[in-house]
Write a sequence for this structure.
């Protein structure tokens, strides 16, 4: 009995040392994920180079940051008014809004909105299924508000890389995030949506513009503050847009005035330029994604992936005995079990 007590006492005495050792090892993991100011400045320089390449007609084909012209030439000036429908597709859900803009002193903008699910079988099915679903949701939204008899102008926020030659046309370059519907890449998404609406026949819609979600963000903020010239998204994915002088954009004709550029910066690093800062966890996230080798910067910072990133780190630390006394549950080993919302403070 005395020996047993003595052994337990020694084990208890060792616990603080073991705890400190574990803390030291955990700090090594965290240190590897911290970037110095010098590294951040270096990454900024690389990114700026890719931006310039993207704006150049000669270098754009090989640039990872595509710097796509949006054909949006200015931010709102406050004179806008009317009754509009807005569609927002591209994140974790699909949102429809009715936006009424007037010049009343008390309330310039009145909005009502509804959020619809975009199930996995829809976003991973065929393109016709996806746009039939969008048209069905729009029909439901209009029916509830008794506006099916109105042909309201529709703005379509489509949060994926698209080639545009005019404001109401968008050729999908590639799907990103959780979307993988077949038969859409290389096609005009406005035509696909118009086809789905026409097939229903119970309402009509006039799609007057299609924009990226970053552009929609900039325009919304610009309505209240005309100094706003940058739109930034850090959500399910990540991207940014900004107003650029037309003379710097080789991809479109003319050099007078300005145009909004959709950077599509989520693909930064797809050429290997971020390999020195990517961790083993970043690489595992990429291998398990729908689009391996693509959108590497997005996979390092955006909401769709951060929960899984934390799970992978916890698994490795637990296997090395640094967390949970080395115990690993089946839930911890399950891909996708951690959402970013679960690990956000």
């Amino acid at each position: 009995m005395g020996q047993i007590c003595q052994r337990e006492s020694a084990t208890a005495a060792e616990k603080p040392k073991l705890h400190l050792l574990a803390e030291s090892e955990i700090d090594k993991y965290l240190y590897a994920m911290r970037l110095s100011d010098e590294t951040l400045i270096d990454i900024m320089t690389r990114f700026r180079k890719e931006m310039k390449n993207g704006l150049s007609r000669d270098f754009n084909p090989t640039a990872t940051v595509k710097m796509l012209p949006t054909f949006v030439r200015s931010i709102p000036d406050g004179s806008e008014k009317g009754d509009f429908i807005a569609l927002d597709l591209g994140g974790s859900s699909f949102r429809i809004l009715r936006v009424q803009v007037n010049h009343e002193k008390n309330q310039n903008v009145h909005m009502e909105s509804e959020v619809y699910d975009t199930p996995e079988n829809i976003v991973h099915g065929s393109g016709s299924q996806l746009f039939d679903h969008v048209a069905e949701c729009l029909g439901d939204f209009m029916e509830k508000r008794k506006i099916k008899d109105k042909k309201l102008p529709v703005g379509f926020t489509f949060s994926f890389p698209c080639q545009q030659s005019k404001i109401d046309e968008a050729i999908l370059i590639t799907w990103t995030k959780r979307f993988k519907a077949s038969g859409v890449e290389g096609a005009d998404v406005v035509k696909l949506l118009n086809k789905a609406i026409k097939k229903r026949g119970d309402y009509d819609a006039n799609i007057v513009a299609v924009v990226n979600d970053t552009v929609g963000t900039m325009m919304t903020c610009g309505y209240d503050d005309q100094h706003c010239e940058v739109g930034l998204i850090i959500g399910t994915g990540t991207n940014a847009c900004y107003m650029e002088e037309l003379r710097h954009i080789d991809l479109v004709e003319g050099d007078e005035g300005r145009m909004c550029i959709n950077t599509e910066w989520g693909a930064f690093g797809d050429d290997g330029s971020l390999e020195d800062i990517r961790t083993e966890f970043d690489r595992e996230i990429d291998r398990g994604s729908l689009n391996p080798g693509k959108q590497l910067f997005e996979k390092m910072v955006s909401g769709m992936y951060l929960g899984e990133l934390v799970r992978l780190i916890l698994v490795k630390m637990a296997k090395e005995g640094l967390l949970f006394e080395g115990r690993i549950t089946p839930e911890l080993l399950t891909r996708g079990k951690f959402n970013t919302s679960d690990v956000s403070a």
User: Anything to note?
Assistant: The radius of gyration is 25 Å. Residues 1-10 have pLDDT under 50 and may be disordered. The chain is about 35% helix and 15% strand. The first helix runs from residue 2 to 32.
